[in-house]
Amino acid sequence: MFRTKIYLLAVPLLLAAFFFTSCKSDYQAQQRQGQGSGGPGQAAARQVRTTAVAETPFGETVTATGTLAAYDQTTVSVKVPGRVRVISVDLGSVVSRGQVIANVDSEDYRLRVQQAEASLAQARARLGLTPEGTDDRVDPEQTATVRQARAVLDEARFNRDRAARLVEQGIIAKAEFDSATSVYKVAEGRYQDAYEEIRNRQGVLAQRRSELALARQQLKDTNIVAPIDGIVQEKITSVGEFLAAGAPVVNIVRMDPLRLRAQVPERESQTIRTGQDVRVTVEGDPIVYVGKIMRLSPVIAEQNRMLMVEADVRNNGKLRPGSFAHAEIVTNDAKMAVTVPNSAIITFAGIEKVIVVQNGKALEKPITTGRRNAEFTEIVAGISVGEKVIVDPGNLQSGQAVEVVE
Fold it and tell me: At what angle do helices 174-220 and 107-126 cross, to 10 degrees?
């Protein structure tokens, strides 16, 4: 029993001694290895590039928030009733102005064109013109109807004049002269009727010509075309559906440029003018988009004392109407500001910093930033003009050895 207790106590002691010896041996080996390679304190310095903090023209700005809207938005409707035969676009399709995007059945309208052409040919024939001609001009005096009425009128005038001479000579009775006069008046009325009939036929011809043009236009309108360049926002109808005149087919939005609609506080509205530059950013996109103030509201809203402004912003294909936008309106281009390149700023846990070089080592400096454009950021506090900051620091840490290269 006593021997068993001694054995149980000896086993842990032997294991502890073995572990201590092993750790000591490993530590000494690592220490010798570190001494042979120069040690961790003598690691190679990281090469970095620096730039000087400078004062540059940055401009005074007015900050505003708003929404991006489509520059133009239209609902394309069918002009003539009919059954939809083809729709060649869908949601997201890019269309160009004048592009055919849908068709309705055109057979009925093609028959109407043929009917109008036949009516026009008939109207031309009644005026003595060739059915296939395009010149509708006609002299009423040269038409058969008027020429016939003119001949009857001339004969009646001759008979009346002869009867007047014979009455003067006492050869015939005055009753015969009165009869000749009546015939002349009837012939004169018929001539006038013939002349008016030709004028009426000319009006009918013009009407038939308009009906043909209308029938051809309706046939053309069976092709539904895009009125603007843009992208299909919504397809409203489908193939096979019968549409009445004016029924919507698709909605199209123009994507470039976009309208920025933003509100400016009343106290800053006096500095806003058309033509001023605007720097626009949207959530999730690091690109700074540039636009110009194009339209100002004539009134300040009584509800919130804000001025509505509109700017045209060029779209590179990434912006979408309806997006929330942050805008900086440049009201004074000449104002100077302390700036650093955007690539020199690092952000961690909501704190913005730059890294400078001090005694051959990296040193982090918290900063307070202001306005920002596509290349530079305004520094409100934290560093001064002339200090050198590291560009593209990456994962560089404070205290790490660095070597500045040009």
Answer: 160
Task: For the chain, count helices (H), then strands (E).
Answer: 4, 22
Q: pLDDT class for 20, splitting at 50, 70, 90? A: very low
With cut-offs at 50, 70 and 90, classify the pLDDT of residue 36: very low
Handedness of CA 167, 169, 173, 174 (dihedral sign): positive
The SS3 assignment for 397 reads coil
The DSSP annotation for 82-98 comes to EEEEEE---TT-EE-TT
Contact of 93 with 232, CB cutoff 8 Å: yes
Retrieve residue 193's tokens: 């009727």
Counted residue by residue, the chain has a size of 406
Last residue of a domain, one of 177, 204, 221: 221
Quote the CA–CA distance of 369 and 383 in Å, as a whole number: 11
What pLDDT shows up at residue 122? 92
19 located within any domain:
no
Tell me how far the alpha carbon of residue 298 is from its chain's centroid. 25
175's CB contacts (< 8 A; 6+ apart) are none
State CA 396 to chain mean position distance: 44
How far is the C-alpha of 339 from the C-alpha of 348, rounded, in Å?
20
The amino acid present at 134, given as its one-letter code, is T
pTM of structure: 0.59
> Using CA atoms, how far apart are residues 140 and 117, in angstroms rounded to an integer?
23
- Domain extent at residue 390: 46-58+337-404
Given 181, 201, 221, the domain boundary residue is 221
